[in-house]
Description:
Strand order of the largest sheet: 5-4-3-6-7-8-9
Bound molecules: S-adenosyl-L-homocysteine
Amino acid sequence: MSLPDSRKIRLILDLRSNGVIDPDVLASMENLPRELFVPETFRDKAYDDVTLPIGHQQTISRPTTVGLMTQALQLNTRLKVLEIGTGSGYQAAVLAPLCRRLYTVERIGDLFRSAVAKFDELGFSNITAIQGDGSLGWPEQAPFDRIIITAAAEDMPGAVLDQLAIGGVMVVPVGFQEGGQRLWRVTRTEDGEEVEDLGPTHFVPLRQDG
Ligand code: SAH
């Protein structure tokens, strides 16, 4: 067994013990070479359950966080999904095999270009990526069945929520205070939304460029 394989197996065990139990989510993460999404200097840590820097003061999320957020979305291959904050592209590459089409938006050009190169290298054909400000969602492509925001919003992002289909689910870290963020699962209903608090989390802020 090669070194990355044994590290990967250990990571999958860690994910399970941290509550990532959906077999499809685990399979998607097991199939993906995470080292591809991590800067070369940190490659030896690609299968550690840690957050790593990806440049531009941004980070690739900890695998447990990626797993728990993906699981919370309750995906299937009929669904159209929006991700705000492509970053390294790792979360997008975990999501893509589990949904029909993934739309992902990143504001930083370098990160956007490098993520798109990874999607091409891995042969993904159901990811549509753009560079831009996603703080107001992607109105031209709405509605979405699922939305995942991988940067922390100050409060409930109302404009993005409006782009969720009725019955749809959005997973979003909310709160700007250091140590004070919570991960929310928001379900859009006929007459509003239901919010479920999934616990503490830690993300870089969602910028408001617009
Ligand atoms: N999902 C990423 C982690 C993202 S880190 C991964 O798997 O690696 C958060 C990302 O959100 C950063 O790349 C940051 O540039 C981006 N971001 C922050 N505000 C944004 C905005 N308004 N629109 C689009 N992207 C944004």
